[in-house]
Design goal:
It contains 11 helices and 15 strands. It is of the alpha/beta class and about 325 residues long. It folds into 2 domains: about 150 residues, Quinone Oxidoreductase, Chain A, domain 1; about 140 residues, NAD(P)-binding Rossmann-like Domain (Rossmann fold).
Amino acid sequence: MKAVLCSSFTGPGDLRLGEIDEPKPARDEILIDVHAASVSFMDQLLVSGLYQMRPPTPFVPGTEASGVVVAVGDGVTTFAPGDRVACSAWTGGYAERMIARESKSVRLPDGIAFEAAATVLHNYGTAYYALVERARAQRGETLFVTGAAGGVGLAAVDLGRQLGLRVVAGIGSDDKAALVRRYGAGEIVNYRSEDLRDRIKSITSGEGIDIGFDNVGGAIFEQIARLMKWAGRLMPIGFTSGEIPQLPMNLPLLKNYSILGVFAGAWVEKFPTEAARANDTLMQLLADGKIRPHVDRILPLEDAGDAMRAVASRTVQGRIVLKVR
């Protein structure tokens, strides 16, 4: 079968389309015909050797996909051949067929396109875990999202709106403003051209942020740490700036706010039942039109490297999707 192969951790430019053997599902796994796979920042980090794990090479990148079940392991009870599903895995999505654990897969509601479904579990799953499970967000609270036009950031804006939060979107260029406003941002801050401290103080009447959802890291995170409200929750989600921030601990001490780590992939591994329930909730929200995944563009499988480079350059709004079938 056709698959995109990463043979060395040298980045998207060295990915190649090749032929590999079809994978076989273990007892708790399903095998799917992949119709669509999304391209994430994590995928780009993984093939560049910059992620915290390194699978044995050669491997097939791709953490999230959607398609049709063609076979199931002996222990699988939730799915059967013919079911339309979305699934997540550490690798394997950029191929004609992939395997995924039963607990990391979810049945698609009728009428949901594969392209949209392939963007939900990572983006909205991360946002859901952060806002609902970790921050315990309450209606009316102020949520500040950095990298708000990216895949995970836009999902946080969209889900924050659905949860009744006051959403402030942080962006790095003005051309992203219209999209984040359409997805529910009531206020927008361009932290490359505006003074972040002054804008947040103005927006919150000096009270600060209840929930900080930071995808960027570096200096932006350090600034947000000085803008938190009493008893707020500041969550590091990722470090797209390439810089892991350092934080003086007197800042959370003085305002009694919490710093909550958010690694949704680890949560899914450790608490599969809870994660599966969250996936069902997200798919119902999708079916009801209450969340709206944004697909920036659809590319063929052989353009996976180009898609990753676009993600790395931060020119993508929402997600790029690879159309496999």
